[in-house]
Amino acid sequence: MAAITAQQVQKLREKTGLAMMDVKKALVEASGDEGGALDILRKKFADKMVERGDREVANGRIGVYADDKCAAMCELRCETDFVATNNDFKAIADALAKQCATSGITDPDAIKKSNMESGQSVQEFMTDAFGKIKENIQIKRFARLEGPGAVYVHHNGQSAAAITGTAAPGDAGRKICMHITSAVVLDGRVREDVDASVAAEAKAKAAEEAAGKPQEIIDKIVAGKMDKWYAERVLVEQPFVMDDKKSVGEFGKENGFEITGYQKFEVGEITE
User: Fold this and answer.
1) 270 vs 107: CA distance, rounded Å
2) Which residues pair with 263 in a beta bridge?
3) 140, 146, 147, 149: CA torsion to nearest 10
4) Do residues 159 and 266 lie in contact, with contact meaning Cβ atoms separated by under 8 Å?
5) In the chain, at which residue ranges do the beta strands (DSSP E only) sit?
6) The whole model's pTM is what?
7) Alpha-carbon radius of gyration of the chain
8) Alpha-carbon distances, residue 29 vs 24, 179, 201, 210, 234 (angstroms)
9) What 3-state class would DSSP assign to 131?
10) Mean pLDDT by groups of 10 residues along the chain of 272 residues
């Protein structure tokens, strides 16, 4: 059997990010063949992934991707907060978001069968990721928005947002995404997105509070109260967090685009 060189070990380590001894053992077993060693490593870590599959994945982060065609996000879960803040884990989450964007697949199970730019399947990518992370890793969900996109992830990776616009949102779009991650209440992009029954209830309450006044005065009071009510809940009407003298929609228009869609993710939020 040919001797395994330090160069072979280093090359495979750079590809996989695995420990030197794991890589060297696989190369020895594969008689120095890099492809064979990769298959051995994937089989080894696939088996271990199954063993750890029942471990709770209570931590995680949001991966993001945006280009001039779409924006995408991925909630990726792991076991510990230590791994959730790891740069390797961040790169894995972002790569999965990009795969969602480029493939158009948003189902976590279906996307595992798709191939990435490297040619490997997402399932193989996840197996390789497990080899680096050594924790149970689970894709929780994806979101994908069509159109020129922008994204932002909060510094702790726990909250993120994406928007699309009528034109490339650029850095202004990123700032709007920052606004979205900080918003306590957000019920829709425009008024028509808000639950009609909830809006009707708010309008009836406003009319009740104005009762006893002339009808034209009641109408003005109700209109004013509803403007304020919607401004608390609708993205394009909310006061922009970085300049509350203008709305989010106005800020977008000042920068050459209108918001056509948005999505906000938080790790661990109830979605069903």
Assistant:
1) 17
2) 162
3) 0
4) yes
5) 59-66, 70-78, 138-146, 149-153, 159-165, 239-240, 243-247, 259-266
6) 0.79
7) 24
8) 9, 53, 70, 82, 60
9) helix
10) 73 68 79 79 64 71 97 95 92 97 97 93 88 86 98 95 98 98 95 96 92 91 95 97 97 98 91 59
Q: Are 128 and 16 in contact (CB under 8 A)?
A: yes
Residue carrying structure tokens 């990518």: 125
- For the stretch 226-234, contacts whose Cβ atoms lie closer than 8 Å and that sit 24 or more positions apart, written own/partner, are 226/199, 226/202, 229/199, 229/202, 230/191, 230/194, 230/199, 232/185, 233/185, 233/186, 233/187, 233/188, 233/194, 234/187, 234/188, 234/189, 234/190, 234/191, 234/193, 234/194
**251 sits in which H/E element:** helix 248-254
- The pair of structure tokens assigned to 28 is 């020895």
Contacts of 66 (CB under 8 A, 6+ apart): 72, 101, 149, 150, 151, 162
Instruction: Label residue 68 exposed, middle or buried (CB < 10 Å: 0-12, 13-18, 19+).
Output: exposed
**Using CA atoms, how far apart are residues 220 and 261, in angstroms rounded to an integer?**
31
Q: What is the pLDDT of residue 243?
A: 96
pLDDT at 18: 64
What integer pLDDT is reported at residue 272 of this predicted model? 54
Instruction: Please tell me the predicted confidence (pLDDT) of residue 46.
Output: 64
- Distance, in Å, from the CA atom of 271 to the CA atom of 60, rounded to the nearest integer, reads 16
pLDDT score of 128: 85
pLDDT at res. 19: 66
Query: What local confidence, expressed as pLDDT, does residue 43 receive?
Result: 72
Say how far apart CA 174 and CA 180 lie, in whole Å: 10
Contact 2, 32 (CB under 8 A): yes
